[in-house]
Each structure stands twice: as C-alpha cells, then as structure tokens.
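name: query_chain
kind: protein
chains: 1
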Amino acid sequence: MARFTTQPLKRSNSAGDELQQARQARHLTVKQAARRLNIPAIYIEALESGEWEALPQGDYGRYFLRQYAQFLELDAAVLVEQYPGPNLPQIIQPPKRAPINPTAAVHPLRRLLLVLIALAVVAYLAVAARAIFLPPQLEVVSPAADSTTSSPSVTVAGLTQPGTEVTVNNEAVEVMESGRFVVAISLRPGLNTLTVKARKSLSREVSVMRRVFYAPSSSTPSGQPELVP
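structure:
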C-alpha cells in the first residue's frame, strides 16, 4: 500500500516579503526597526514572515502592520487588506506639531491690555501698602509753639486722619470723624512740654511737641485760658 505523507502548505507572504525587502533596502536590522517603532522585535519578525497568529489578538496586529508599513514608506492600505479578518477604519494619527506657546497665541493688543491691567493692580497695591504703613498726617493748630499763658489750662487742638490714635502726654484723646481733636490740658507753673503723638494700627508713630510757659496771674479769672505768643 502506498504511504502518503502530509506537508505544510506554503503560506503566501507577499505583504511580509515586501516589508522585509523594504527594511533591508534601508539597511536596518529587525532590532533597529523595532527600536524606532517601539514595537517588540518578535512582532516585526511575525509581520515579515506572515505569521499573523503570533501577533496580539484584536486590532493590535493590524495596527502594528500599518505602523510598520508607514515607517517603511509603503502603501499601508494595500498591505492591511492582506491581514486576515474584517478591515477596520484606518487609524489616522494627528501630525506632530510644535507645542503652542500660550504667550505667542495671545493677540498683541490683548497682551498689552493684560500688561496694563497687571501694572494697574501693582500700582494699586503699592498705594494701599503706602497708606497702611506711612505715618498719619498730624497738624497741631493750638497752642502755638513756645507760647506763654497766664491760664492754668491750655487747649490742644489739631487735625489728623480719621481712625488715627492720638495722645497728648501719653493720655488718649478722642478723634472726631472729621479727624479733628480738641482737649484741655492743665498746666503747672513754669515751662510745660506738651507732646502730641499720632499713629495708625500698622504705621509708624508721628509726634509734634509744643512748649508752653505758664505764668500765673491773679488778675486772670480762673478757668479762662489765655495764650500770649
């Protein structure tokens, strides 16, 4: 009886042959092509030998075939048609573009407007900080500097900014909403020094000093202040 032997069928591998020839024409090894495509070398070998079953299941094999064909500048659509299974829509990769500089994308006029707004904010903050930390305005209108009086008391009056703390010889003085303050200070015979101080919560302190010489006079009614420059 005649004995028959089975031999494997020779697989048609026109796609794999075309891939292999294109790679060799570029003097690339399988490892070099795999490294550039970031695809395992065993999959490159499977694509060139037509061993589709060695490729990952699903769409990965078809994707690797398309990537490899595009890398070798071959007609990817024609080669993908030879891949077993239904043809799927071609995966279109977006072209590589240089990163967009957000500053360059802004219109020049808009950029100028943003700069002006930033400068205005900085200027406003500088003025606000200056108003907070600078010493307050302080003006003493009475008594006059180096004055003489025969009255046992003198009226201290002046003007400052609203919300300012004012003291006369370390005694707190009430400040009106307009910033004015008035207080009567008793005098001792002889030279009296009156120190008026003003400060805000975070500001430096400012002070004004007045010297008043008290010379008692029996002819001056008690309690009536009299200033003689």
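note: The longest strand covers residues 190-199.
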